[in-house]
Design a protein that fits this description.
The protein is an alpha+beta fold and 374 residues long. The protein is built from 6 helices and 19 strands. It is 12% helix and 21% strand.
Length: 374
């Protein structure tokens, strides 16, 4: 079966198992999926030599995709970098005013990367970079729900009631802003330091919100983006996130998931619990029976030579004093007769109890008559 595609491309049943061309371009690091669709509509993309003008096309792994006549790179594993953006850099690939961009300051050896979200010219702090356009799109979606925190310095003397409208959510120029998390940290002269948390990241959202309550932002630092934090990074630093950490935080589908517990050493895997170890899963090694122990084993003394006759060979070279036999052939302890009692023992009366002894009065003493009775 052959299906006609917009732009003159032909799709067969085999291409139905492929991927959208914009997604393939995004995974190759060319651009985000949305920007790749704009390139396709502009007629800059060709598949197997045929120009494509619609993003509604699936391509197979063997198809050759070119951009402006140059083949795109093969899809690479998704990678993520943390970048401390300094003040004065533009977060865009090209600037019409000729200003320096964040991509002009990347260290040598960095592949082509894209920014996840943006920071304006006068803002600084954490900026995420990736080589995967699909990952960029996922992390920028509001449905991801990642909290982005900022350290904000404003001019003025606000109090907790000042930020109540922002905590409830406000509408600015007809655009609804989601509720923010605002904490007043300290007052420092004419300025105040705040901690602000947002989940959407609209254009200049924090600055516009502060202006709505009568405050002017004179410094803005993004300190975290979801689980990724600035920590001790300095302006201009670039740190790549390890692949294991990226998998733990994003998973295969690009969504945040809790970290997995590592199996305990020496624990067996239970297939009923999905291979996760649990209590009682430790491998049990049965102890051999006494009859199965080798000759001369230290825990089975009855098998040692000479155990029945008492002629056991000594363990060291020094002679050992033989142990006397306990009794006759039966092995019982010999009976020792009690020595006979002295004469008169048979006539000795049994000892009486304390209450059966007769009372013997005490002889009188001098002065007993003058002593008063008790």
């Amino acid at each position: 079966m052959r299906l006609s595609q917009p732009g003159g491309a032909i799709m067969t049943d085999e291409t139905a198992t492929g991927e959208r061309i914009a997604k393939v371009m995004a995974r190759a690091g060319v651009a985000s999926r949305r920007d790749a669709e704009k390139m396709i509509v502009a007629g800059r993309v060709a598949v197997n030599g045929a120009v494509v003008t619609s993003p509604a096309l699936d391509v197979r792994p063997g198809d050759k995709v070119t951009l402006d006549g140059k083949p795109i790179d093969a899809p690479q594993p998704a990678r993520l970098w943390l970048y401390y953006k300094p003040v004065g850099l533009v977060t865009s690939a090209r600037d019409e005013k000729g200003r320096q961009t964040v991509f002009d300051t990347m260290p040598e050896g960095m592949p082509r990367v894209m920014s996840i979200g943006r920071l304006d010219l006068n803002s600084e702090g954490l900026l995420l970079l990736t080589n995967d356009g699909e990952l960029k799109r996922r992390l920028e979606l509001p449905s991801t729900g990642w909290l982005r925190k900022y350290r904000v310095r404003v001019n003025g003397r606000p109090n907790e009631a000042t930020f109540d409208p922002l905590r409830r959510g406000v509408a600015i120029d007809g655009e609804d802003l989601q509720p923010m998390e605002v904490t007043l940290d300290k007052q420092q002269g004419a300025n105040a330091w705040l901690t602000v948390g947002i989940r959407e990241g609209k254009n200049r959202e924090v600055r516009r919100a502060m202006a709505e309550v009568g405050l002017t932002v004179n410094r803005l630092i993004r300190v975290s983006y979801g689980p990724f934090r600035l920590n001790t990074m300095k302006p201009g630093d670039v740190v790549e996130v390890k692949a294991r950490v990226l998998r733990d935080q994003l998973g295969a589908g690009g969504e945040e998931k809790p970290p997995q517990r590592k199996p305990r050493a020496g624990a067996a895997k239970d297939p009923k619990r999905g291979g996760k170890p649990g209590v009682g899963d430790r491998v049990f090694k049965p102890r051999p029976l006494r009859e199965d122990r080798p000759e001369g084993h230290g825990g089975n003394r009855s098998r040692r030579p000479g155990a029945d006759t008492g002629d056991r060979p000594p363990r060291s070279g020094a002679p050992r004093k033989p142990r006397p036999l306990m009794g006759e052939e039966t092995g019982e302890r010999p009976f020792r007769a009690r020595a006979p009692r002295a004469e008169g023992d048979e006539k000795r009366p049994p000892r009486k109890a304390a209450g059966d002894r007769p009372h013997k009065p005490r002889p009188p003493r001098e002065g007993d008559e003058a002593r008063p009775p008790r």
